[in-house]
Amino acid sequence: MNIHSIRWRLPLSYAAIALLATLSLGSVMLLVLKNYYTSLERAYLNDQARALQPIVEQILLSDAPPQVLQDQVAGLAFLSQTQIRVLDKTDRVLADSSLSSARQAVADSSSPTGMVFNFPTNSSTPPAATTDFESDNQSGLSVQVVPLSGQAQSIPVSTARSSQVASLKFKNLLGTTLEVYNGPAYGSDILNTVAIAWAVAGIFSTVLAGLAGWYASRQVTQPVLILTAAARQMETGNLAARVDLPLEKQQEFLSLAHAFNGMAGQVETTVSTLRAFVSDAAHELNTPLTALKTNLELAAAEPNSARRTLFLTRAIEQNQRLETLTHSLLDLSRIESAHAAFEAFDLRQLVSEIGERFASRADQAERAFHLMLPESEIPVLGNAVQLQRAVENLLENALKFTPIRGTISLSLETSAETVNLTVADTGIGILPADLPHLFERFHRGRNAAEYPGNGLGLAIVRAVSEAHGGRVLAESILGTGTKFSMILRVDGNSQGH
């Protein structure tokens, strides 16, 4: 058993809480009951003391012999179910019922020192105690005792004894004290019964709480275990692993499973894309590397200097192609990593500078170029270098695929929340079958095979647009021309920043 596992810690916590609650409540309940029954025992002893006081006082005033006082006190103690002690003003014991047997005193009532008890049955107030000494009695003493407190008749007899003591001073005997003690502890049986019931209830509630905690822990840990199993499957390479909780009703676990499945799908897509990218990159890099190696080998083996120069020139071209490809891959990686710093700048000024530089190139290439910009500034928050690279890629494609005397245009249009940057040309156009794959890495249109390129330019354009919270669209008519539109948010907020 792993006590650090929530599967065990939750049941143990439930059981501990139930045990503490039971102990607390039980302790308070027993304390209240004990105080209650202690007060009843004290009240009982006080009642008996008040009832016995005049009787014992009358015996003391009659100057009865000590043995008679002792026997009378023993008899009264038997009737009151207590122990009685009489002390003088120096606390010397005059009589103590614990030193004699009340039962024996009653049994020997015909003895010279025997006692006669008369209890009126219909009197609520005890009559005055009387004593009568007759000459024909062997001891010359006859005692008549009044009934004790009526409460004594309703008190159940108990073998347990109380530790309470009731003490009263005699009114007519200064310094003499009557003590009534060792009365029945008639609450002890109830307290014992309650304590046993409390212990049983405590054990039952603790076990029940532990079982409830076990059930709750299973409800909590089962979805977690399923999530853990799916994560471990992904760890071993099964990227298609997903979490299914058909019986789960807790919204939190359902949200967690949904988030996990979304993350797993994103990981699977990313890894699949990465694998395809590595495969495509290896293929694209292999072509110029093979050509470079071939030209260098031919140049090394060629004795003719003119042909050797030709082979070296071709090798340099392949080297430049490799440089362009690797630079494009690095740029695409930086853009997609979303680590570029954003700052505020004027998009209109940036596009104007790009257009002015491109205008001379278009003129030298015998293409018409039109630049259409709004009069006011267009403040955006973004990365000017990335946006410049995207616009230049679109213009390079337009220049490459537009024939002589064709037209290329660059324009900016703004709305309340977006700005639309458009590059249009009258070039060869794009096949409809190629349009859905136009922005994928290394994809090149089937009608563009004879044109130079590495298939990363439009992928970079899309990455830049998405990094700035926008998108890029393409429209084309084969043989008529193509239009690319980068739609960006004016405030420059992006998904990655």
- How would you characterize the largest beta sheet? 5 strands, mixed
Strand tally = 14
Computed CA radius of gyration, to the nearest angstrom: 55 Å
Low-pLDDT stretches are 102-157, 492-497
Oligomer: single chain
Kindly give the count of domains: 3
N-to-C SSE series?
HHEEHEEEEEHHHEHEEHEEHEE
How much is the average pLDDT?
Answer: 78
Number of helices: 9
Strand order of the largest sheet: 9-11-12-14-13
Task: Give the overall shape.
Answer: rod-shaped
Decide which structural class fits the backbone.
alpha+beta
What is the share of helical residues? Answer: 40-55%
Approximately how much beta-strand content do the residues carry? Answer: 5-15%
Distance between the termini: 47 Å
Structure description:
The chain is of the alpha+beta class and 497 residues long. The chain folds into three domains: 6-189, no CATH class; 239-337, Helix Hairpins; 340-497, Heat Shock Protein 90 (2-Layer Sandwich). The protein contains nine helices and 14 strands. The protein has helices spanning 6-61, 66-80, 102-107, 188-235, 251-301, 305-337, 347-364, 384-401, 457-467, and strands at 83-87, 93-96, 116-117, 130-132, 142-145, 165-169, 177-181, 343-346, 368-372, 379-382, 407-414, 418-425, 471-477, 481-489. A five-stranded mixed beta sheet has the order 9-11-12-14-13, covered by helices on one side. It has a four-stranded antiparallel beta sheet with strand order 2-1-7-6. Strand 6 and strand 7 form a beta hairpin. Helix 5 (251-301) runs antiparallel to helix 6 (305-337). Mean pLDDT is 78; it is low at 102-157 and 492-497.
